[in-house]
């Protein structure tokens, strides 16, 4: 699964990496411990251009009666996207990239949950595969999203049997292509990322609390 992640790159780096347009006065700060239900950065395709948007992490389907589903729908299993009512329509028409440069997973050790930080060896930002929707709340529209997961690669398996889908860079344009609606063209993109390109290490337990959103969250644990 994916329950916490980071996006610590500056906006100039993200603009260069994703070739996206940022709206004027767009709210962005580097984040070291992003948690469900919080605002996150996402990229969608509008008029064949990549555009940065702010979504809330935790999908609220358009048909939902209230927002309670959000905390239960932070992730979507790639294997069942075409079966779940909340996801199958979005797979065809509301796909997004969710920029990140790392994520956390936990291992049960001596009766405690030890957090690990996982990122690319290159330390470059990458994109999770995501889906988004618009929900109409009493106060107006709310834009929410979910991160797609797949089976874990060999690096993640000792920590968890699932991992977020990190799209291959040359697959990102396919995922955002609004002219593609056939799941059979999209589902093959949702594969475990190469373990050889990734690394992980234990970090401090402050990550367990969303109130800590500081660089120390990603620093290796000193024994």
- Helix-strand topology string: EHEEEEHEEEEEEHHE
The count of β-strands is 12
Query: Uncertain segments of ≥5 residues (pLDDT<50)?
Result: none
Radius of gyration over alpha carbons?
Answer: 17 Å
Strand content: 35-45%
Q: With helices defined by DSSP (H or I, 4 residues minimum), what is the helix count?
A: 4
3D architecture notes:
With 223 residues, this protein is mainly beta. The strands form two sheets. Strands 3, 4, 5, 6, 9, 10 and 11 form a seven-stranded mixed β-sheet that branches. Strands 2-1-7-8-12 form a five-stranded antiparallel β-sheet, with no helix packed on it. A hairpin with a 2-residue loop joins strand 3 and strand 4. The chain is globular, with a radius of gyration of 17 Å. The protein starts with a strand and ends in a 21-residue tail after the last strand. The mean pLDDT is 94.
């Amino acid at each position: 699964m994916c329950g916490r992640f980071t996006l610590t790159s500056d906006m100039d780096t993200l603009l260069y990496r994703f070739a996206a347009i940022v709206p004027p006065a767009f709210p962005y700060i580097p984040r070291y411990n992003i948690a469900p239900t919080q605002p996150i950065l996402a990229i969608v395709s509008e008029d064949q251009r990549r555009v940065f948007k702010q979504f809330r992490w935790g999908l609220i389907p358009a048909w939902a009666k209230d927002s309670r589903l959000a905390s239960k729908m932070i992730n979507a299993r790639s294997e069942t996207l075409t079966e779940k009512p909340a996801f199958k329509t979005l797979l065809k028409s509301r796909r997004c990239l969710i920029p990140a440069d790392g994520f956390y997973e936990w291992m049960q050790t001596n009766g405690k949950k030890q957090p690990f930080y996982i990122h690319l060896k290159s330390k470059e930002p990458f994109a999770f595969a995501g889906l988004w929707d618009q929900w109409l709340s009493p106060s107006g529209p709310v834009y929410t999203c979910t991160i797609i997961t797949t089976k874990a690669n060999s690096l993640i398996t000792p920590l968890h049997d699932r991992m977020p889908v990190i799209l291959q860079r040359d697959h990102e344009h396919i995922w955002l292509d609004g002219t593609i609606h056939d799941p059979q063209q999209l589902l093959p993109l949702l594969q475990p990322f190469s373990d050889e390109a990734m690394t992980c290490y234990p970090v401090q337990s402050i990550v367990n609390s969303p109130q800590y959103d500081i660089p120390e969250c990603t620093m290796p644990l000193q024994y």
